[in-house]
């Protein structure tokens, strides 16, 4: 006879706030010091304490990193804040495998998902609670918190996507979200 059994789920999600729980949850934080060279004003960046947390990530990797066909589930919470006239944001990356896409869905807060292709053509999608975003394979992606409360989004991405941060550190995005007269505007850079 075949074996039949019930097993534990990989974890829990609190649908009210997107947070994850359970023994498989991993967590990381990115500080201002780790975001050197990402904001356009080095001078304004240097005025902020390097240990200030800009965003935190929680994720569940059900399979080993790099597993073809696997998926990760996670969330990112970006604190509100400014570096000069530029809002707090994620580092941003291309996936190492250029044929790996990703889903984002906003839970709380307001901001923008900035997308850029390999020809440096860039655009932004407004994020607000409930908005769902598809990051097409091959696009660099970054989230900007243009509101005055934490911005949290959930994400689902392939376990073997990999992260290319270096090209963003080196070349940046060709679009930035900055504050003009108290409101966010996108500018080409
Ligand atoms: C992973 C996914 C997110 C980001 C997170 C932090 O593919 O896009 O989990 O890792 O939002 O951003 P970044 O650019 O520092 O990885
Ligand atoms: Zn990604």
Identify the notable features of this structure and list them briefly:
single chain, 189 residues, mainly beta, 6-stranded antiparallel sheet, 3-stranded antiparallel sheet, globular, binds D-sorbitol-6-phosphate, binds zinc ion
Task: Explain what the structure shows.
The protein is mostly beta strands and about 190 residues long. It is about 5% helix and about 45% strand. It has two helices and 17 strands. It has helices spanning about 40-45, 165-170; strands at about 10-15, 20, 25-30, 55-60, 70-80, 80-85, 85, 95, 100-110, 110-115, 120-125, 130-135, 140-145, 150-160, 165, 175-180, 185-189. A hairpin with a 5-residue loop joins strand 10 and strand 11 (about 120-125). The longest helix has 6 residues, at about 165-170. It is globular, with a radius of gyration of 17 Å. The chain binds D-sorbitol-6-phosphate and zinc ion. Zinc ion binds near residues 93, 95, 141 and 157.
For the largest sheet, list the strands in their spatial order. 3-4-5-14-9-12
Number of helices: 2
How far the N terminus sits from the C terminus, by CA atoms, comes to 65 Å
- What best-fitting shape do the alpha-carbon axes yield? globular
Share in helix: under 10%
Order of helices and strands: EEEHEEEEEEEEEEEEHEE
How many strands?
17
Cofactors, ions and other ligands in the entry: D-sorbitol-6-phosphate, zinc ion
Query: Radius of gyration, Cα only, in angstroms?
Result: 17 Å
What is the makeup of the main sheet? 6 strands, antiparallel
Query: Given the helix and strand composition, which structural class is it?
Result: mainly beta
Q: Tell me what portion of residues adopts beta-strand conformation.
A: 35-45%
Mean pLDDT: 98
Low-confidence parts: none
